[in-house]
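Kindly inspect what follows.
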Amino acid sequence: MPGIASAATSVVMAYLAAGTRSIRIGAGGIMLPNHSPLVIAEQFGTLASLYPGRIDLGLGRAPGTDQTTVRALRRDPQSAEYFPDDVQELQALLAPVVAGQAVQAVPGGGTNIPLWILGSSLYGAQLAAALGLPYAFASHFAPDALHDALAIYRARFRPSVQCDRPYAMVGVNVVAAATDAEARRLFTTTQQSFALLRRGERGLQRPPLDDIESFWSPAEKQLATQMLAFSVVGSPDTVRAGIARIQADTRAEELIVVSGIFDSAARIRSYEIVAEAMSA
C-alpha cells in the first residue's frame, strides 16, 4: 500500500525502540491471518528481549489486503476464520516454556508480551472479552459500532492473567495547531484521503487545501464526515476540551491518537500540543 510507510511492523518497532529509552512501543497492529503465530512470537520475542518491558502487541483479524496479495503471502484465504485459535496459540508461545513442549518460540517463550485485540466491529469486542485481553477500537476511521462494542466488551469481560478488569483504548483523529482555522486547514489532508477512498483511489497524502468544499462531492463529504466522526481539530483549548469530551463519553483507559498531517513539522507540533493538553 503506497500510503503506508512500511508493512514490516516489527522492523519499524525495532528502529523506534532503539531511538528511545522509556516509552512503550506497540504494534497497532499485526494482522494475524497474514502470519504464522510462531513467526510473530519469535519476532516480538526478539523485540521484548532487546527492549524489556517496552513492547506491546496488537492483533487484528482483518487480512487488510486483497486476495491476490493474500496468495502472494502464501496464506489460506480462510485464515481469518482461525483468528481466535491463532491468538491463543500465540499466547501459549509467549508463555513460560513447559517441560516437553514440542514447539518453542526462541526467543519469545516466557516473555508474556502484553496482547491487545484490535477491532472495528462487535467481533473483536466479544473475543477480547472472552480471552480477558485489552481491547482497542478503530474509531478513528470506523466509529459506528464503537459504543455497542465497548458495552459488549465490558459486560462480557472475563478476568485473565493479563487483565483483571476491562481495559479499552479508542482511536481518535487529532489535528492541533495554534488556531482553529489553521487546524481545520491541516485536517483537509485527512479529509481528502477519506474522500478518495470512495473514488477507489489510494496513495500518498496530499497537501492541505484552502477550500475542501471545492474538492469533494456531497456523497464524498458525507462518507468522509461519517468515517471521521471521532476527530478533534483545533487550537490547544479546542483540543483539550475535545479530548476530555471523548474520554468522558467512552470511559476509555487510553486513546490512540492519529494525526494525518502532510507537513512533518506541523505533525510533530500537533502531537506536542496533544501531549501538553493531556498533561494540563
